[in-house]
Write a structure and sequence with these properties.
This protein has about 260 residues and is an alpha/beta fold. The chain has eight helices and eleven strands. The strands form two sheets. It has a seven-stranded mixed beta sheet with strand order 3-2-1-4-5-11-10, with helices on both faces. A four-stranded antiparallel beta sheet has the order 6-7-8-9, with helices on one face. The protein binds S-adenosylmethionine (SAM).
């Protein structure tokens, strides 16, 4: 299954990979807002949520007053992000777009967020380089990139083969989500199989989908950011940010005169 197909198929039940998606929207929005305002001032800021999915970070940031635009490879995901924004009466313009070719003019945003392991869907050095260069292009001079991935330095050493189940309680019952990981021979990439057991009368319906990731260790991602022209890339640990993954913060090197 390709990446777009994986997320299109998952869009309507993506929230169920979280125990409580609404709580995560609020928590992640606050954590990102703290980093944004520490770097750029109180705002509100114009933010591109690049790989917004169904809106986990976009909605949290928009609720705090930032002017957020969401883009994602998956049209079904951005359509759901729009529905979620409407339900909360939040402004959230969205577009289906590939992070390797963003449909925005140079210097359009104060900040770009690319959160929850979206970049590792790009499987080659060329694609990672192109995406980071595009991100830098749409940032205004002095603007901020906030990018989160799994802690791949540690995971490349441990090579886990599964992730423990998460249980989501919804109106129709509980959904159980868990993952199997199948490492490629190169030791760098892996296929992830996501299993969801959905409540179905007295039993369960099982949905399985699969996607491929490139597990770039933190220092390699920072090196790609540097080569794409970002200044001062620095990883922040979850314990310091309250965000559930390590977050790379990096600046557009230019000087802001706006
Ligand atoms: C794990 S999801 C995270 C989504 C969202 N940030 C969140 O936390 O809910 C990864 C997202 O990356 C998007 N994605 C993967 N490859 C992409 C690409 N080349 N361009 C834009 N989005 C991409 C997927 O469609 C998916 O929505």
């Amino acid at each position: 299954m390709d990446t777009r197909g994986f997320y299109d198929e998952l869009a309507d039940r993506y929230d169920r990979v979280y125990a409580d998606w609404d709580a995560s929207v609020t928590r992640q929005g606050r954590a990102l807002d703290t980093l944004l305002t520490a770097a750029l001032g109180p705002g509100p800021h114009t933010v591109l949520d690049n790989a917004c999915g169904i809106g986990t970070q976009s909605l949290g940031l928009a609720a705090l007053g930032h002017r957020v635009t969401g883009t994602d490879l998956s049209p079904a995901s951005v359509a759901r992000a729009t529905r979620e924004a409407d339900r909360r009466s939040l402004p959230l313009p969205v577009a289906a777009a590939d992070m390797r070719a963003l449909p925005f003019a140079d210097a359009s945003f104060d900040a770009v967020v690319c959160a929850d392991n979206a970049l590792p869907h790009l499987l080659t050095a060329q694609d990672v380089t192109t995406a980071l260069a595009e991100t830098r292009r749409v940032l205004r001079p002095g603007g901020l990139l906030l990018l989160s991935t799994r802690p791949y330095g540690e995971l490349r050493r441990a090579r886990p083969r599964s992730e423990a189940p998460h249980v989501h309680q919804g109106p129709a019952g509980r959904t159980v989500s868990f993952q199997l990981w199948h490492w490629h021979a190169d030791g760098e990439r892996y296929d992830l199989e996501l299993f969801q057991l959905l409540p179905d009368g007295e039993g369960w319906t099982t949905r399985v989908s699969s996607a491929t990731y490139w597990a770039l260790p933190e220092e390699e991602t920072a090196a790609y950011a540097r080569r794409a022209g970002f200044a001062d890339p620095l990883w922040h640990a979850p314990a310091d940010t309250g965000f559930h993954q390590p977050l790379l913060a990096a600046r557009h090197p230019g000087r802001w005169t706006g």
